[in-house]
Every structure is written in structure tokens, then in C-alpha cells.
UniProtKB/TrEMBL annotation:
Pfam families (alphabetical): Annexin (PF00191)
Annotated InterPro entries: Annexin_repeat (IPR018502), Annexin_sf (IPR037104)
Gene Ontology cellular-component terms listed: cytoplasm; nucleus; plasma membrane; vesicle membrane
Name used for this protein in its record: Annexin
Coiled coil regions, renumbered to chain: none
One example GO MF annotation: calcium-dependent phospholipid binding
PANTHER family assigned: ANNEXIN, ANNEXIN A9
Species of origin: Micrurus spixii
Record keywords: Annexin, Repeat
Family indicated by similarity: Belongs to the annexin family.
């Protein structure tokens, strides 16, 4: 749900209700707890801001300060408000957040990931770390997920297929570029080397072309 548009999220809510005869937001509220629940509910609302093309340096500093809370330089002490992390991570545009992450590290001396590892726990920490990775570089995030999924495609190719279908009309070309940069082999060649049979044919069809 982290990469879906507001309209896509509304469709997800509608299809969920149609298929499961239940309300997704209510099920999240009942089935999860704490900051993890709050993050999922915030994301499913689809209130992420679009990128205006303008750099708001005041807001960058405000958001960075809100994330830092009462922690000292180096992040060794103090209290962090999960609600502030949820609000900022779920509502700000990826372009804005990448600048917030950079300013945060410049002013605190540690990355937002290190802060989350140190101060948060459980599902909220894991979901937050995944979300930050996704927001930092979406194509790289999915390239990494595809690499892991294809290595396991002999057992279950559904994850790889789902990723490639969902990204086919948005940033699959960028994902292919990041894949080759990170792993030294094109996604197309990697699929040919690591899969076979119907799974290979399906994944190659989704990948569409070799990257020279």
C-alpha cells in the first residue's frame, strides 16, 4: 500500500470489502496494535502529498526536528514520538522525505534507519525501516525484492510476478536499471539463469527486454 495512489487505495478498499465482506480499515485496527497499526491506517488513507516541484527548506527542518524529538546529537538519549514518525512518513512526498532524511543525518550525526533501530521495536520498526528504504529509492527497493524473489522462484514465483505486474506501467525500466547496477547482470539475463519452464516464460514476458 505504500506506493499506491489515493485512487488505487480507494479501489483496494472497495475490492477488499467486496471480496471479504469486511472493512479493511476496521480489520487493520482490530488485527494490529501500536505504532504498526497507526502506520498502516495512515498509509491506507492515501493522504501522501504530491511533489510540487518546490523545495520547502523550512518544512524540511521542521520535519527533521519532529523526527528527532528530544534525542541528543548522535541519538543516544531522549524520547521519540511514534505519532510524528507516522504522520511524516505517511503524508510527505518521497522527494521531500529524501531531503528530510539527509538533513536529519547532517544535524543528528546518524541516519533515520539507525534511529529506528535504536528506539523502536517489533512490527513498527520493521515496517518503518522497509518504508524508509522504499522512499529513499523505490526502484532500488523493488530491484532488491525481485532479486530475492527470483532466487526463490523455483518454489513460489508469485512474489516476483506480482512485483513486475504492479510496476510494469510505472517504473519497471528504472527497476531494471537499478538491478543491473547493483548485481552486475541484467534482470532479463538473471531470470534466464535462475528460472526455468513456465515460471521463466512468465517472468521474461513481464520483463520484456534485455538491458545491454
Amino acid at each position: 500500500i505504500s506506493t499506491r495512489t489515493a485512487n488505487q487505495l480507494q479501489d483496494i478498499l472497495a475490492y477488499y470489502k467486496q471480496d471479504f465482506k469486511s472493512d479493511l480499515e476496521k480489520d487493520i485496527a482490530c488485527g494490529t496494535t501500536g505504532g504498526f497499526r497507526d502506520l498502516l491506517l495512515a498509509l491506507i488513507k492515501g493522504q501522501r502529498e504530491g511533489y510540487s516541484g518546490m523545495i520547502d527548506y523550512i518544512l524540511i527542518r521542521q520535519d527533521s526536528k519532529a523526527l528527532a524529538g528530544d534525542t541528543d546529537a548522535g541519538g543516544d538519549a531522549g524520547h521519540l514520538e511514534e505519532s510524528e514518525w507516522v504522520r511524516i512518513l505517511a503524508q510527505r512526498s518521497p522527494e521531500h522525505l529524501r531531503r528530510v532524511f539527509s538533513w536529519y543525518q547532517e544535524t543528528t550525526g546518524i541516519s533515520v534507519e539507525e534511529t529506528m533501530e535504536k528506539h523502536f521495536q517489533g512490527n513498527f520498526r520493521e515496517a518503518g525501516l522497509m518504508l524508509v528504504s522504499l522512499l529513499r529509492n523505490t526502484p532500488l527497493y523493488f530491484a532488491s525484492k525481485l532479486h530475492s524473489a527470483i532466487m526463490e522462484a523455483g518454489c513460489d514465483p508469485r512474489t516476483a510476478v506480482r512485483i513486475m505486474i504492479s510496476r510494469s506501467e510505472t517504473d519497471l525500466l528504472s527497476i531494471r536499471t537499478e538491478f543491473k547496477r547493483c548485481y552486475g547482470i541484467s534482470l532479463y539475463s538473471f531470470i534466464k539463469a535462475e528460472t526455468h519452464g513456465e515460471h521463466q516464460a512468465a517472468l521474461l514476458g513481464l520483463c520484456k527486454a534485455e538491458d545491454l
